[in-house]
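User: I'm putting together a teaching handout on how multi-component assemblies are represented. Below are the sequence lines for each component of a complex, exactly as they appear in our records. Could you produce the 3D structure of the whole assembly as structure tokens, so the students can see both representations side by side? Please keep the chain order the same as the input.
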Amino acid sequence: MSHIVSLRSASLRALRSSSTIVAASKCTTSPHRSCQPLRKFSYSILSTSPDQNSTIGNNKNKKRTHSARTISIDSVPDSVYRFNRRIHTSPVFFDSVDVRAPPFPESVKEGTIRLLKKVGDKVSVDEAIAEIETDKANLSINAPEAGTIEAYLVADSDNVTSGVHVAKLNTSADAKPVSESKTDAPIGKVETKSGQSIEKPSADPAAHISLNELSPSAGAIRDTSAPQKPIAHPIKTYAKIDPHNVTGTRLETRVKMSRMRLKISERLKEAQNTCAMLTTFNEIDMSNAVEFRKKYADQFLKRHNIKLGFMSAFVKASACALTDSPIVNAVIDGNEIVYRDYVDISVAVASPKGLVVPVIRNVEKMNYADIERAINEYGEQAKKGTLPIEDMDGGTFTISNGGVFGSLFGTPIINLPQSAILGMHGIFDRPVAINGKMEIRPMMYVALTYDHRIIDGRDAVLFLRKIKQYVEDSRTMFLDI
Amino acid sequence: MQSILRGGNRVLISKSTNVYTNLALERYLAENIKHQPKTRLLLLWRNQPCVVVGRYQNPFAESDIKYLAEKQIDLARRYSGGGTCYHDLGNLNVTIVTTREDYNRKKNLHWIVNTLNEAFNLTLHVTDRDDIFLDTFKVTGSASRLERLYAYHHFTLLINSCLNDLRRSLKSEDQIKITSKATPSVRSSVLNLADRNNSITYEKTIALLIEKFFQWNNEKNTTNCDYIDPLLYYEQMKDFENELKSQKFLYQATPPFVYTVEHEKQPIEISVSNGIITDIKGNDSIIDKKNFLGQLFHAVYHNIQKLNKT
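Assistant: Of course. Below is the structure of the complete assembly, with chains in the same order as your input.
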């Protein structure tokens, strides 16, 4: 798939102005497409404008190498004359050998390449030029022939896939070592493929035919010229950069979205498109809750063998508030409002695969201990990945806790098919005015995002105030006020 | 002497417990034996306490270099990739060498798991990272090296190792200070086989493996099992051994990294490439750059640690 050969570029540029050149391009076949020895040749005419040249190398395979850019154009003057003569007369035998990554073992897709030799180093046959580390296995890339390393088409520590063109080896005896400084610099911009393109076998340049396997008499193995200078228009690069590192080299990398992420984005958008969502806020003075928890934590742990957290306080408070304001517990179905006489609260739990939201059923009947136990159980199951699907279904209300990450304030998105969601945030000490005096209290902002189609502002605000009351003073739950 | 390099299904047990010697022996045998298709070479070895890092890892990020020096625990870098492990006499190393075509890690691991489960009544299983776990504890880590004509897969087996020393040696405070593209280790909790079944010993295990190895390969000639004294082949192996012992290979083969030090609340970034400090970014007035630029990182490591204290 490499249509570009380094040393030609300079010579062809020289010839460009004089005549149009017929060049043969070698279409390398990938192993799954056709039988090996068949090489297709196509002819293309090189025009004089450099921009057009950039498209000539293109065939159906959109990805191209930009290796020409990495090679400095200081070829020996003699060779220019050699090309001059050869291009018009006989097929060219080229002294440059492509070195490619070997097939990876055990269906591994990609690995990290480590360069062992520098450009300009002389290597003997079968000497190790580089190593690729895949999944704890080191593959060694050996020189197919003795020669000098002309250029590397990948950078050290790059991700490469099997068959990728790694280096060029100059096997001619009088090869002048190419100057290294220029060649190493733009190395980042080369054709290492993203490992994610697994679904397109044709995109994988897995042709293992290196030039030394072709005999010189096999016909014109001339490759079409490369663009002589870096392409003027910004090409979508196919270089692989680490998506987690912003290094400022102005490149992109495309990573396919996982199924889970697609699902999540779908549901979020659906919620936004269906509900008339808005959010009301309030703040909760957590001092009583903190004190309460501190006071009874040990006793609770001893009796129930689980830790007493804040979630139970909020879950129970929400359940009580929901029984008081049944409209928040209801949902729109078509043109009907469906009221429910039970409260199922979905609690967001972190699992190794991401966020899952299991449902605690009939919270209106539970006490703090029952709630903590249920949450604990779900946490364990989530960690092991054994959460049954039925437990994630349904729910009449959701509580999301952004506070664990330190969030101060925020607007959660409703979890369909519900009508409201409570967002808890972080507890921070703040100065507040109490009875005319300033005091420092641990405060938490809470947010209630609700569907305005069935819940009016008044209902939502009063609902949130009830939650605030039930958390700030849990005794009020018994007073039914 | 040269018959040591014959091919076929064979078992070799190394008499040496020096990690550099054993690693050199492994490579020497792998490169020079005339491997025959569909046959395997089993190499069994163990080392005095040492820490072995993968080919492209950063020893500073993987282990506590000071602790190793204090306790005179060797530090070695192996030729295969993968992560870092701690060896001592309770940790059995197994290498399976084959032709390149016959390389198959999963087969090797499944053989081990089946053999050990049957004989010792265990519940080992192979994970998709090619480790062997007993419940949630790791007992085996794998690594391999593939060349054009041969390939080897080696793995460790925690029989009766000192886990405290293991944890202490592999704990690195420098891990957060280092950013690089070196291969990171994936850490797991470990367990000795002997903790689960206290009748398991090193001697029993190797006897079992040798017997089952020939069965596995359908090899009727079970006499092809020798103890090998690497010292007898010192001349042939000395290049490998010297490379493995050299500071150059140990420290300078680390992929380029940046080591960040906090000096008087200011971060100083030391860029190291090929083991040599190439650049220092930070407040110029605080540190004396001349002392560090161009020096070998591991040589001035001590002084760099001192910077961190203030």
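A couple of points students might notice: The longest strand of chain A covers residues 420-434. The interface with chain B takes residues 102, 105-106, 112, 114, 126, 131, 133-140, 142, 156-157 of chain A (CB under 8 Å).
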